[in-house]
Amino acid sequence: MIGHGSLHWAEQYVGSGLAALLIATEPMFILVLGWMAGQQKISLLSALGLGLGVVGVAMLTGAELTVKGSSLWALLAILLGSLSWSLGVVISPRLKLPSDALGRTALPTLCGALMLLIAAGVTGEFQQTHWSSITLRSIFGLGYLITFGSVIAFTAYTWLLQRVPPALVATHTYANPVVAVLLGWFLAHEPLSMRVVLASLAILGAIVLIRRGERAAALKPEEAVASVDEIHATKECA
Q1: Quick one: CA dihedral 160, 164, 166, 169, positive or negative?
Q2: Tens of pLDDT, residues 12-22
Q3: Alpha helices in 123-171 (DSSP H)
Q4: pLDDT, tens only, 23-81
Q5: Cα–Cα dist 206/203, whole Å
Q6: Helix (H) and strand (E) counts in the chain
Q7: What percent of the chain has pLDDT over 70?
Q8: What is the pLDDT of residue 228?
Q9: Which of 2, 52, 158, 191 has the fewest CB atoms within 10 Å around its CB?
C-alpha cells in the first residue's frame, strides 16, 4: 500500500523523471537495510555500481526535472515508498510465504489491493471518480497493466528474489528508464540523443558492477572456509 500508493499519489505533483530518479534509491535502501540485518555485505564494486546507477538515471531524466514543479511532501512520499518497498524485500525471506512464485505474488498483491481500496474509500476517491468518462481504451490499458505489469512482471520479480541477492533484483529501477527510452525511440520515433546513450551505458555499467560486487562478496566466505580447511589439513599431515 505504501510502496505503490505513495508513488502514485506523489506523481500528481512530481514529474515522472524525478520520480524515477528517487525510486532509484531502492537498491541503496535494500543494500543498507540488508547490511543492518546481517543479510548483505557491501563491497566496493557494489557501492560504485549503486552510485553509477543513480548518476545514469539522473542523466536520463535530468531534462525533465525542471519541467514540472515539485512538492516537498511529494518528494518525501516517494522516498518513503522506496524505503517501505525495500524493507519488505529485506524481511520477506524471514516470513512464511508460499514457496511458488505465483503464490508469493498473489499474497502481497491481494493484500495490497484490499488496503488501497479501503484507503480510496475512506478518502472519498470513489465519489470523485467520473465513471462515465472511462473509455474502452482505458479498460484495455488497465487489462494490459494487470496482465504484464502485475501478473507477469511481479511474478518474475518474486521468482528472482528467491534466487539472487535483493540488491541485484532492485537494479530494475535503473533499467526501467532505459527500456522506456528505447521503446519510445523505436515505437514512437522519439529522439535518441547522446545524453540518452551515455546515460544508458552508465546504467548498464552499474548493473555489471553490482553483479560483480555480489559475486565477490559471495566468494569471500567460501575462500575463507577453504583456507581454514587447508590449515586443518596441513596440521593433520604434520
Answers
A1: negative
A2: 887 776 777 77
A3: 125-128, 136-144, 153-161, 166-169
A4: 877 887 887 888 888 777 778 888 888 888 888 877 766 665 555 555 778 888 988 99
A5: 5
A6: 12, 0
A7: 85
A8: 45
A9: 191
For cell 543513480, the residue is 54
Q: At 67, give phi and psi (nearest 5°).
A: -75, -35
What phi and psi values does residue 68 have, to the nearest 5 degrees? -130, 130
Q: What is the rounded CA–CA span in Å between residue 3 and residue 23?
A: 10
- Could you identify the residue written with the cell 599431515? 237
With the C-alpha atoms ordered 168, 85, 75, 128, is the resulting torsion angle positive or negative?
Answer: positive
CA dist 228 and 222 (Å) reads 10
Flag whether pLDDT at 116 surpasses 80: yes
- 92, 98, 99, 102 alpha-carbon torsion, rounded to 10°: -100
CB 111 within 8 A of CB 40: no
Q: Which residues lie below 8 Å from residue 177, measured CB to CB, with a gap of 6+?
A: 20, 57, 60, 61, 203
CB 27, CB 169: distance < 8 Å:
no
**Separation in Å, CA 9 to CA 78, 118, 156, 194:** 9, 15, 26, 33
For residue 89, how many other CB atoms are within 10 A of its CB?
23
Q: Which of 3, 5, 12 is nearest to 116 (CA)?
A: 5
* Structural domain boundaries in the chain: 2-99+166-237
pLDDT at position 90 over 50:
yes
